[in-house]
Amino acid sequence: MLFSLLWKALLQTMYMVAVAGFIGSLIGMPIGIFLATSGKGELFPAPTVNKIFGAIVNATRSTPFIILVVAIIPFTRLIAGTSIGTAAAIVPLTIATIPFVARLIESSIREVDKGLIEAARAMGATPLQIVTKVLLAEARPGIVLGLTLTLVSLVGYSAMVGAVGGGGLGDLGIRYGYQRFMPEVMLAVVVVLIVVVQAIQSAGDILARHFDKRTRKN
Questions:
Q1: What CA–CA distances, in Å, run from 201 to 13, 127, 207?
Q2: Beta-carbon count within 10 A of 193 CB
Q3: Per its UniProt record, what NCBIfam families does this chain match (predicted)?
């Protein structure tokens, strides 16, 4: 029985993390690229818009996740048709992912050597070519590690969303481990979460090393 419950909850958690991570990254990456390249004197100068986007991203990131879940319940119902269950949990998870990814992507791109940008400009590369062939190419290890951190954080968020009926491992731990006084279930949930996080982090580290030119040269 315990294995069956754990397996079902694990699948729900992986589904939530995968969908929210994919959609959140799909939206967050362009925002992060924009934030990293739209400051004064940068490739796509739009400092006013940059500040507006930055303020929105900061405001969203500053909101504790559990409060965000409750605050956007009407929006969640509009999108998912309900405020409980796995499908509903994806909505706040995705919204929390977008600013997180945006800042990580921005940070990774800003770490690229400015000399490479100037060299590309001197060779006649367009701003779009610089972004795609220089910035994103050089920032790949950092981007991979950033996305790995995002997925690890989403695993934790998905456990928190179980407190409001979001399903997954967090919901299992609360309903059985806490409310029904079954510590063995809580322990099993914690162990599974640790294994999942370790697997994601290890895969991300391997992929980042693959993209790191310094590591490959050695």
A1: 16, 33, 10
A2: 20
A3: PRK10782.1
Question: What whole-number distance in Å separates Cα of residue 86 and Cα of residue 171?
Answer: 10
Q: Identify the architecture of domain 2-217 in CATH.
A: Orthogonal Bundle (1.10)
Inter-CA distances, 186 with 41, 153, 154, 166, Å: 53, 20, 19, 17
Query: For residue 169, which of 21, 19, 2, 24 has the smallest C-alpha distance?
Result: 2
The domain locations on the chain are 2-217
| Reported pTM | 0.87
pLDDT in tens, 139-150: 999 999 999 999
Beta strands in 103-155 (DSSP E): none
Confirm if 49 and 38 have CB atoms less than 8 A apart: yes
